[in-house]
Structures are given as structure tokens and as C-alpha cells.
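Reply to dn_fold:

You asked what the input looked like. This is it:
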Amino acid sequence: MTSSRLLDGRLKIRHLILAVAVADHGTILRAAEHLRVTQPAVSRGLHELEEILQARLFERGPRGVRSTPAGDVFLEHARAVVAQLILAGERVKDVSSGTVGTVTVGTTLAGTNRLLPMAVESFKREYPRAGVVIHEATPDSLGVQVLGGSVDLVVGRITAEAQDPRIERVSLYREQIRVVVARDHAAASLSVPTLESLVDCSWIMPVAQTSLRGELERAFEAHGIQTPHNRIECTSILTLRTLIADYGYVGVLPELVARDDERLVMLPIRLEGVSRTVGFSRLRSLPATPVASAFITALRKAGQVISDSLLREG
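and this is what came back:
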């Protein structure tokens, strides 16, 4: 296939949108429902696209479709093109309407407690006509949204693990992960509480395969004890805090989250190597809109305030 086949007028934007929708939703039917078109229209569009590219992009199976290696390559570029078109539309709208625009922010637990509210308040004080849309989701889901251009940036934990090089990550501050219990928990009255003294308690832990879970397991190993057997695993911050405060569980929380809950006590147990770096991430290849750039400035200022506070109180 020569590049001229892509530029002879047959390839349409709808072909890119169809391919991305099918990849995201996993079946022709769900993609059609998402795009509000008929299933034959999606199938026909994919056939046209594969004919233009002279390559098979998806393998069809009884449980849906799966992208081929050629499909993976095409989808990477299709997502980038769609993201650029979305950005172009937003910028034209901003210029024509005279408004500042809207920044869309994805977030996880790490960003919602202190950093994001501080940044939003500062940003809205300076740009009262600007819009802010906040979506909370899992890190994996937010990564897909960043690559697809549906969020401008993600505020949350920055890990040291291998990450997608297409995403830029900026660290703003680092805080400790603390062992916490309710104020009336027996461990709160111990003169020198230790992990060994708590191992037989009921624990609430991060789910397996997360960075924090791995760090905690290594901390227990460093103390010569096994990860507590009497445990549940939880990703819901509201459920986690209620189980600790009202039902006697032992858990771990970022220091700033624990500090803001008067029902909880942080035990003086040092978890070596267990902390979190908080910051933001965004797509490297996508220029930030003016409103997103202004919000990033607010994030940096809020992060500096928090970092200074942690240094003073640490």
C-alpha cells in the first residue's frame, strides 16, 4: 500500500472513529450502539477501511473482535488523529465564543483529597468563567482516556514502574503511607505499637497487583512477618474509611487522607519504602489548551504548598 491510497479521498474521519469505537467496545454491536448507527453500517465501514489499507485490522470471533498487529499500529495513529481533531474543535470554539474553555481532569484517590481541590479553588478564583470537569476512575481506565484525548490530564499517584512513553508524568510531592486505626481501637492505646502486634487483627488492604500492595508486602517481609491472613481487599475509599472507623479494622492510608479524618489515628509505625508520589500526567504529543495550561499552573502551585507543609510537619 502506498501513502497515496490514504490521501485519495476515500479515507474518511468516520473510518477512524469506527475503528477506535470497535477497539474500545470489543464488539461490532456495542460499537454501533455507542455511535448510534446500525450494526451493518459499522461492518461496512470497517470493510471499507481494511480495503483502503489493504490489511486486516480485526479478527472476528464468537465473543467479539480483537485487533491484529496491523490494527494495533493503525489504532495508535487513529487515536492521535481523533484527539487532535477534538483539540482543534475546542480551540476554534474558544476563539469564536470568546470564552476561556473547559479543562477535563481525570483523578484517582491520590489526587482527590488535597491537591485537586486546592488547585480547582485557585484556578476558579483566577478564571471564574472557565469550566472544570472531573472524572474519577481507575488508573488503567484513565490511561486509556489520556491516550484518546477525552481528558486533558490525570491527577494521581505517580509510580516508578515502567509506563507508556507517550504519557508525560510530573511529580509534585511525596507523602508517607501510614498505618491507621479508629481512635477507640486497642492499638491506639499501645505505648509502642508494632506491625507484629497488629498482624492478628482484621486488616483492610489494597488489592493485589497494585504498587501499594507490593510495597506493603515487602514491608511485612522486612519485619519478618507474613502479610495478615485476616484481611479484605478494597478500592473504595468510603468503604475503607468506614470499616476502619466503625468496625475495628486496621488499614493504611496516605498521610494527608488520614490527617483529615478526625475519627482515625495514625500509629507511630514506620513503613520503610511505602510512600506515594503525587502529580499529574498528560499526553506528550498533544499541546495543552490554554485553559489546561492554566490549570496545570494551579496544580503546580498547590503541589508546592502541600510539599512545603509536609516538610514542615514531617
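The first strand starts at residue 58 and ends at 61.
Hope that clears it up.
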